[in-house]
Amino acid sequence: MKRRISNLPNLKLTMGNVEFDNPIWVASGTFGYGTEAPELVDVNKLGAIVTKSITRKPREGNPPPRIVETSSGMINSIGLANIGVEKYIQKMLPVYESLSTKIIMNIAGTDIQEYIEILEMVESVSSVIAGYEINISCPNVKKGGMEFGVDCDMTAKLTEALRSRTDRLIIMKLSPNVSDIVSIGKASEDAGADAVSAINTVVGMSITAKTGMSNIYTTYGGLSGPAIKPVGLAAVHKLYNKLSIPIVGIGGIVSEEDVAEYMLAGAKAVQIGTANFRNPGISEDIISRFNLFMAKTKWGSADEMVGQVNTHS
Length: 313
Ligand SMILES: Cc1cc2nc3c(=O)[nH]c(=O)nc-3n(C[C@H](O)[C@H](O)[C@H](O)COP(=O)(O)O)c2cc1C
Fold this sequence. Notes:
Elements (H helix, E strand, L loop, with lengths): L12 E3 L2 E3 L3 E3 L21 E3 L16 E4 L2 E4 L7 H13 L5 E6 L4 H14 L5 E5 L10 H4 L2 H12 L5 E5 L7 H10 L4 E4 L3 E4 L1 E2 L4 E2 L5 E5 L4 H14 L4 E4 L5 H10 L3 E4 L2 H4 L3 H14 L18
Parallel strand pairs: 3-4, 3-16, 4-7, 7-8, 8-9, 9-10, 10-15, 15-16
Antiparallel strand pairs: 1-2, 5-6, 6-14, 11-14, 12-13
Helix pairs in contact: 2-4, 4-5, 5-6, 6-7, 7-9
């Protein structure tokens, strides 16, 4: 029997001044610039595309090997390889004009000035970007990235500087590689961020016993995929308990149930990362399956289930 359209749950959500059709987005660095998806994938069905981290100048990234598969996940040390903001503006922004999905531009820098310059360059030319995700959590670069994400004062200064220069959505992307993710989240909130996203990758290492070789050029890289879902869920739940701004949950999502778990933990939206490498169409599939999943639950809308996990204490 066909389900009546009116029974489909409402997946729309508002974050800052932006309305998203659904809470299922693709994560930075795992969907390119959003323009390379195979023809079979309808990117306009996605709640949003978070584009890969953009720096002021183009970057080659780290030498290979920079990706290795691990049990239930992968380790990467791409090192923010990207085309730089000038090319992003020239080549990517015009393509985004033709998409109806929301584009969130992820920005990375080595100091506050670099983040500001990138944001100002984009602000001055285009309105196609719905918002910015600020990468203060990349474990794979020598300078910048993580230096912000582990320090409350730096996080607050950076957030404030960007907030005063744009009315668009600002999402600070948090690292799990800290002793207290909540204090970094709170610093972001107090300095005016619209939302935080959590988590970026978890520092990891891979070794082949037989050869005695480390499998990543930079020795350590960022672990992602199903192996880190429990870390992501705990981070989101802790943040939800202490923050009033929305949380975007990331880490190890491969199914509609994973999406629901993140929402129950406190995420208002989620991002799918590593799973895109196995199947670039997986996020679109998960959106359809999440619709059906929701229709069978007591929740009338995705928003209603945010933070509603039953804990034992
Ligand atoms: C190959 C690869 C490249 C990534 N590049 C970026 C990046 O450029 N900027 C960023 O903020 N996060 C980057 N990430 C982190 C993801 O956006 C995401 O936070 C992380 O992988 C956890 O989600 P997942 O387990 O679903 O992959 C990258 C992850 C992978 C696997």
